Amino acid sequence: MRIEAVQGDITEQDVDVVVNAANLTLLGGGGVDGAIHAAAGPKLLEACQALRAQERFADGLTVGDAVATPGFDLQARWVVHTVGPNRHAGQVSTTALASCFGRSLEIAVELGARSIAFPAVGAGAYGWDVADVAGVAAGVVKGWAACAQNGVLEGQTQPSGLELVRFVLSGPAALAAFERALA
């Protein structure tokens, strides 16, 4: 599995799965969430509204969990929405932050994805320092890659087909933080 960090626009990534740093409503917002909703088109909002109509998501998506929708007008086949902990609201659990990355990887494997692109979930509007996010994300993905290489993924009956995990960062400081964490 190749793991890389690049500077760019997550909505333009030619991957199977794009991860959305969503809010718990799943109905769009600012930052990465707003950009993905805008690029995917109105059918993404309709799909998210349909999810919210399900009993499981009646109160929204739980922090650290993830759920998939089609990618619609994105190059990506799917969008995996995950909700990071909001430090501004007192949600300071690195375990919940790690779960965002882990659950997104699990869902990507369930979908049969070969490639996935992540933003810096939790950084920005949710108040996490990008270096902290990079450290947590790199730890989860490296651990996942090591387990996948050994053919042992918790809860999986078949090996991961993921070949590429890409972190797509919006600026040079975030890119540098992820490059350090992945080194």
From TrEMBL:
Full protein name: Macro domain-containing protein
Pfam families with a match to the protein in the record: Macro (PF01661)
Gene3D superfamilies hit by this protein: Leucine Aminopeptidase, subunit E, domain 1
Domain Macro as annotated: residue spans: 1-183
PANTHER family according to UniProt: GANGLIOSIDE INDUCED DIFFERENTIATION ASSOCIATED PROTEIN 2-RELATED, MACRO DOMAIN-CONTAINING PROTEIN
Species this protein is from: Cellulomonas soli
